[in-house]
Amino acid sequence: MTRLTTVARALITALAGLLAAIAPSATAQSRTEPQAPKDFVALRSVDPTIIQEMRYFTPHNFVGERIDGYLQPMCVLTRPAAEALHQAQRKLLRQGYTLKVYDCYRPQRAVDHFVRWARDLDDQAMKGEFYPNVDKSRLFADGYIAEKSGHSRGSTLDVTLVRLPAKPTRPYRPGEPLVPCFAPENERFPDNSVDMGTGFDCFDTLSHTLDPRIQGEQRANRALLKSTLEGLGFVNLPEEWWHYTYKPEPYPDTYFDFPVSRKSLTSAH
Questions:
Q1: Which of 20-34, 44-58, 240-254 is the least confident region?
Q2: Closest Cα to residue 78, out of 52, 39, 110?
Q3: Of 59, 78, 138, which is closest to residue 258 (Cα–Cα)?
Q4: What is the pLDDT of residue 22?
Q5: Domain limits of the chain?
Q6: For 158, which of 59, 102, 208, 263 could close a Cys bridge (C-beta 3.0–4.6 Å)?
Q7: Where does the record locate the signal sequence feature (predicted)?
Q8: Is residue 90 scored above 90 in pLDDT?
Q9: Per-residue pLDDT averaged across 219-243, rounded?
Q10: b/e for 209-239, b at 16 or more Cβ within 10 A?
């Protein structure tokens, strides 16, 4: 009986020591999570009228699952970029449109997630929608995936236009049949945005902003977005009609890795 008690006490002591060792390391880990510089803001705090459909917080993206680093579905930007976007929104509201963002600041860990996915040639679950005509082995060579992204610098965003009054976009159901992102608007995944000729994140040359095959209303919609944003300091990436960077960037050479969450911004304000 005494021996059992001694053994039990030894086990309890060992367990207590183990818990004590684990607790500080967990606390230290949460304490060392990167924080945003003070001039990063939640877009909603600058302009709550801009629609946010943060695709990488959801499984409706080219990977098919929520992307690392997106802890909350929110748009985070440097303040100058957010304020310029607010000015664009004011102009567009008067014309019967609203902006909608799909992605804003993107942590480096999210970019790393994309890179891991791109190297796994067996995972082609979302090919049918996002890259039907591109061999996955070509994603790096063709420039669709890279190890660094301007989004991680905090002044780049992916954006589109929605005609007012905005209708809701139905939720994506994982496993549902996929339709090519360049299919006619009434066939591809329903998005409440205006018709830009392709869906967001369409890995295809039709996504090039000035692709000559895009004509009529689709071309006019791209031109309205481009002229509005470029008039306020944004620069379009020619290969992606949705991709804009505010210039001059406050952090042109820094790639941040703090998570997308309100907590990342808390200590900065």
A1: 20-34
A2: 39
A3: 78
A4: 44
A5: 1-32, 38-266
A6: 102
A7: 1-28
A8: yes
A9: 98
A10: bebeebeeebbebbeebbebbeebbbebbee
Give every CB contact of residue 107 below 8 A, 6+ residues apart in sequence.
Answer: 68, 69, 70, 152, 256, 257, 258, 259, 260
Token digits of residue 150: 């301007």
Residue stretches of the annotated binding site: 151, 158, 243
| Binding region for Zn(2+) | 151, 158, 243
Look up 147 and say whether it is catalytic. no
- Using pLDDT thresholds of 50, 70 and 90, give the confidence band for residue 125: very high
Among 53, 217, 239, 240, which one carries the catalytic annotation?
240
- Tracing tokens 């680093």 back to the chain, one arrives at 69
* Cis omega (within 30 of 0) for bond into 248: yes
- Residue pair 190/182 in contact (Cβ under 8 Å)? The answer is no
Residue carrying the six token digits 């005509």 = 133
Mapping DSSP to helix (H, G, I), strand (E, B) and coil, where does residue 54 land?
Answer: coil
Q: Rounded to whole angstroms, how far apart are CA atoms 207 and 199?
A: 8
Pairwise CA distance, residues 231 & 113, whole Å: 34
Judge whether 51 and 99 are in contact, CB under 8 Å.
yes
State the helix-helix crossing angle for 79-93 and 216-230, rounded to 10 degrees.
Answer: 130
Give dist(CA 179, CA 241) in Å, integer.
20
Bridge partners, residue 253, by sequence: none
> What gap in Å lies between CA 38 and CA 252, rounded to an integer?
16
Beta carbons of 85 and 76 less than 8 angstroms apart: no
Residue whose structure tokens are 């979302």 = 126
Write the DSSP symbol of residue 252.
T
Higher pLDDT among residues 15 and 138, named by residue: 138
The H-or-E segment that residue 153 falls in is: none
- pLDDT above 50 for 23: no
